[in-house]
Amino acid sequence: MAKAKRKPSKRKAKAVTFTPAEQRFIDEMIVEPNATRAYRLAHPECTYATARTEGSKYLANPNIKNEIQAARNAQRARTQVEADAVIEVARQMTFSDLLHLFEDDGVTPRPIGKVPPETRRMIASVKVAKITVEKSVDREGWHDVTTTTTSQIVEYKLWPKPKGLDKLWAHLGLTQEITPLESLLLALPPELSQQVREALAGPLHPAGGSTHTGSRTAGGSPSVRA
């Protein structure tokens, strides 16, 4: 008699919860991807050295790391800022020709409307001067004076550095902070690195109560067991 096939059980993924300090760390990493800064804001009482070390541990936690990435993706979708658009703005600002700010003589500033759009992105402010010209005309004993006032651009001030663009690069993940702990994990063999990450992702225990024990293999290299 044929056995009835068992239907595969559908298990719901267990929701990941974070402590208030971990959530604050995640929120601050969205604002600015600096683990040390984020940890100090989540734990105001800690020292800079502690924040640097513990912030690296937070980033090595897969749950925290995934939550930060998910939040960034959601934020990016809301703002509709694409990496390609940011790169294009950076390209325009980097390769714009300053000669486009001047007339053909290379000295007289062009009116802002005649400056190409990609070059206008470099302009932080414009200084405009009012020029008054008086013209005197004698007509049959009468002395007429005509006064004409015009506005002329005399100075363009350029952005010293696109700070807002730098923040967008960081927001889109085009720049990434490599913490000391992450550098160490990347230097380890992949299998050992994964074991360390899993150990760091587990619950913290008080001194003497840790469930993680260290051992050494026959070759003398350290290993981590859960």
Compressed to H and E, one letter per element, the order equals HHHHHHEEHHHEE
Low-confidence stretches: 207-226
Tertiary shape: elongated
Average pLDDT figure:
76
State the share of residues found in helices, binned by percent.
Answer: 40-55%
Strand order, sheet with most strands? 1-2
End-to-end C-alpha gap: 44 Å
Estimate the strand proportion.
15-25%
SS summary, helix count? 9
Care to describe what's here?
The chain contains nine helices and four strands. The protein is α+β, with helices and mostly antiparallel strands. A hairpin with a 5-residue loop joins strand 3 and strand 4.
Task: Give structural attributes.
single chain; alpha+beta; 2 domains; two-stranded antiparallel sheet; 43% helix; disordered C terminus
What is the element layout, followed by pairings?
Layout: H1 20-31, H2 35-42, H3 48-60, H4 62-79, H5 83-95, H6 117-120, E1 123-139, E2 142-158, H7 163-171, H8 180-187, H9 190-201, E3 213-216, E4 222-225
Antiparallel strand pairs: 1-2, 3-4
Q: In a few lines, what is going on in this structure?
A:
This protein has 9 helices and 4 strands.
